[in-house]
Amino acid sequence: MDFKSDFKTNLKNLRQENNLGQVELAKKIGVSKGTISLWENGLREPNMSSLIALAIFFKVSIDYLVGLDE
Q1: Which of 1, 26, 37, 57: CA 20 to 30 A from 18?
Q2: What is the DSSP secondary-structure string of 4-64?
Q3: Which whole number is the average pLDDT over 3-28?
């Protein structure tokens, strides 16, 4: 399993499904646009507080975000 690939794909899909740009998502969860870009390109992984913020914002589980749950 490639969790990094699953996370970046799931994040980008969720963002696009919700018609959000990287800047808008970044503002909503309190990170920079560059951070969202790094995550979506698989160059960085989020810390636990960011994963929680994303899960709450998108109303999904952390397991879903990282590809452990469909």
Answers
A1: 1
A2: HHHHHHHHHHHHHHTT--HHHHHHHHT--HHHHHHHHTTS----HHHHHHHHHHHT--HHH
A3: 94
CB-side exposure of 59: number of CA atoms within 13 Å? 2
- Rounded CA separation 1/59 (Å): 24
pLDDT tens-digit profile of 20-43?
A: 999 999 999 999 999 999 999 999
Q: What kind of architecture, by CATH, is found in domain 3-64?
A: Orthogonal Bundle (1.10)
If you count them, how many residues does the chain have?
70
Domain borders along the chain are 3-64
